Predict the structure of Branched-chain-amino-acid aminotransferase.
Amino acid sequence: MEEKTIKVHLSNTKKAKPAADQLEFGRVFTDHMFILDYTEGSGWHSPRIVPYQSLTLDPASIVFHYGQTVFEGLKAYVTKQGEVRLFRPEKNMERLNRSNNRMCIPQIDESLALKAIKELVNLEKDWIPTAPGTSLYIRPFIISNEAYLGVAPSKTYQFIVILSPVGAYYKEGINPVKISVENDFVRAVKGGTGEAKTAGNYASSLKAQELVSNEGYAQVLWLDGLEKKYIEEVGSMNVFFKINGEVITPELNGSILEGVTRNSVIQLLTHWNVPVYERKISMDEVYEAYKAGLLEEAFGAGTAAVISPIGVLAWQGEQMKINQGETGEISKKLYDTLTGIQYGTESDPFGWTEKVE
Amino acid sequence: MEEKTIKVHLSNTKKAKPAADQLEFGRVFTDHMFILDYTEGSGWHSPRIVPYQSLTLDPASIVFHYGQTVFEGLKAYVTKQGEVRLFRPEKNMERLNRSNNRMCIPQIDESLALKAIKELVNLEKDWIPTAPGTSLYIRPFIISNEAYLGVAPSKTYQFIVILSPVGAYYKEGINPVKISVENDFVRAVKGGTGEAKTAGNYASSLKAQELVSNEGYAQVLWLDGLEKKYIEEVGSMNVFFKINGEVITPELNGSILEGVTRNSVIQLLTHWNVPVYERKISMDEVYEAYKAGLLEEAFGAGTAAVISPIGVLAWQGEQMKINQGETGEISKKLYDTLTGIQYGTESDPFGWTEKVE
């Protein structure tokens, strides 16, 4: 008895939209949100769009104590043709269900979730900023809201989608950042929750991030939790290295998030006949390549920044300057192509974008 | 400009208290709760006791997305003298601040937090059940409630204390459980958040727990995340083994929670001149002791169960039956002594209990 019809309760008031030059990331939210409830025995039910509003939760709700929660992040873009498009949203819905499986949250109907996102984005399309590089960030998430202090999966959940107009990640063009290799703190380990998009991974990362930002670095480069040898991710992005003409990214191993941008980068490079490998890569290997003058580029890949070039990589007291601290050729081409596809200024050979109507 | 005076806003209505034989764990809450706010720049402020009520949170609150949260757990007991007592509450407050440090949450005034707990417990003292083994469970926790989707520490928090009358953990006397050694999933790893009492550790544990409970086990025994060799915890308790007259518990290593009951067990054993060691202990060592007939007892130690004897330990296809599946002598003596101190039927040589007035 699945309900597929989304009830819509429109807001009586409209918030002022931020000026184009005032846009930040994730601070302002649109007028409406989507909610879907789960109750053990009844499944997911009552899909509805309602005015953006506070959530009312019992203080004993499982999410506050045991963090049983998952989320996703994607964006809606206004193309140069004036259409509203999403980028590979079905990949986010698939990953949401993989995260659900790891976190003991019931599977969600991916087509209903995607339909809900599209209906909500369409309703809020006036909120999508149109200046170059701006977009509407979409945050679907699930929280466990049973009021129970036992350590057990919740019997009730809410799937919620909120929207936030966001500014260009790079205000003055794509710009390399300084990264510090993290040797003390660990983001995730095989058998843990690293491949799930769940709250605890991000909570765990705050301390290392706080310490390196005091030293002037933008993010940390995470190493594996076992040997502190192999590279995993950079900040909350996947990471790529170009060494002697070949591009390498850490293989998925149970502790690395399977990024949608990561997957798109691999497909584009393959399409361009640039050799690209998913395999283990150690900091020793990166350092040796650097010393031999073969470390050509390094960059993060994720939804927020798309491509984030690494200009300086600090490890064991050494500051490796990569590509003279400038954005590399492949990084730039990937950024231009991916954003070009997203904003409709480039052709979309893989059919990655999906129109919202 | 710290406010130390706790404002009290009493509830107009009183909930019905559960019958003594209907008490569960963490499902029913008392009439009031304590709240303390944190705002960047102002620090912790506005301590207050208010009617137990839902929390109202922006859906973009950091706790829902990035799980920046910590908690504690302790109990209030009515002693045979009719007094209300807490067990080593200052240890919980110290650990709360250690957890805060790891999770980038501002330090809290431990004496104010303890004062708040005492005032709240005193106000709700009619809620403390008095049947043997029952108590009032106290759950202090901190949530990050800034509405911001950036991965960064929150600028606002709430410290909240809720109370729940709980039944006896063992309805028919202390009872050994079946435990399965976990070989796939990992609870925590050095450099992660295992030694902090934070939501993500518990979310991470749900899947393994779900799988073994389908096979008839009560909990998993967690091994280290590096080699899957050394023992860490059992379920959400610390763990002890008695081998050939000596008691061994895994040493604190950054991924093991420093339990208050663990510390009390070590002190009691030392007081009784029972050899007790905090050191690495591998499953191989436990298995060899078992084969040699030297594995005398095994038990978990934590606030909820106090002492939880392990009757069967399953590992690599073998079911190790410990002490004929019965509660061992040391386990029983520790349980009787700890609960005796808590309920005032035994003397309290260490001054562990603290009167609430």
Chain A is about 25% helix and 30% strand. Chain A touches chain B through 65 residues (CB under 8 Å).
